Amino acid sequence: MTKETEKYAQLLLDIQAVNLRPDQPFTWTSGLRSPIYCDNRLVISHPQCREEIETGLVNLIKTHYPDVEVIAGTATAGIPHAAIIAHLLDLPMIYVRSQAKGHGKQNAIEGQLLAGQKVVMIEDLISTGGSVIEAADKVAQAGGQVLGCLAIFNYCLDKSRQAFDQAGYDLVSLTNYEALLQLVKQNQIFSPDQEKILAQWHHDPELWSQKY
Ligand SMILES: O=P(O)(O)OC[C@H]1O[C@H](OP(=O)(O)OP(=O)(O)O)[C@H](O)[C@@H]1O
Ligand SMILES: O=C(O)c1cc(=O)[nH]c(=O)[nH]1
């Protein structure tokens, strides 16, 4: 855990984005069942937290992807962050739908993407990585050059590591599960039993999921 990852994990705790419900697990978009759910959609409702997060994301882009030409939001939760970042960097923005529209222009990508443009994907959170990888694939198929993916929070599951390795996309995040867990322990936010459940879950989320 670094000072930076700790700072952003604390911000998510401060706005109560982190929910723990071991007795009534959450169902994730991947279908996995989980005792934890981090609702980063709340960030947009808290101006001070929002400003710190968007500034952090902009700084990561300047460090890791200085050549970026287009900021791409992943629908839906990545879109507001992509919009703010694109505005702060004075860059074009696009967003990628999880499914192409069934009417109108039937677009999967909204906004203008020119062939060869260098794109950074913005996602609010990485669980399995499936959503942002699928969106990045759509951008690549449309002729964009994906420099990498940027997220606020990453659970750092083996499954997502393997998925990013296989897809060949770079991934950078502001904060992650390790930093969050460290703060939770330090501040005794959850009970020892709850911490144990989290440890079991993170060790093998698929096995944990099958049991519930
Ligand atoms: O890494 P993954 O396994 O793909 O999971 C993470 C994705 O799940 C959530 O989106 P959700 O599907 O709930 O839709 P939303 O963005 O429209 O809220 C989240 O915002 C990420 O996009
Ligand atoms: O995988 C998901 O669907 C997911 C997990 C999580 O913690 N937060 C979220 O918004 N989505």
UniProtKB/TrEMBL annotation:
It comes from the Bacteria. Orotate binds at residue 127. GO terms for molecular function: magnesium ion binding; orotate phosphoribosyltransferase activity. Its EC number is 2.4.2.10. The keyword Transferase applies. Keywords: Glycosyltransferase, Magnesium, Pyrimidine biosynthesis, Transferase. Homodimer. Belongs to the purine/pyrimidine phosphoribosyltransferase family. PyrE subfamily. NCBIfam families: pyrE. Catalyzes the transfer of a ribosyl phosphate group from 5-phosphoribose 1-diphosphate to orotate, leading to the formation of orotidine monophosphate (OMP). This is Orotate phosphoribosyltransferase. It comes from Aerococcus urinaehominis. The gene is pyrE.
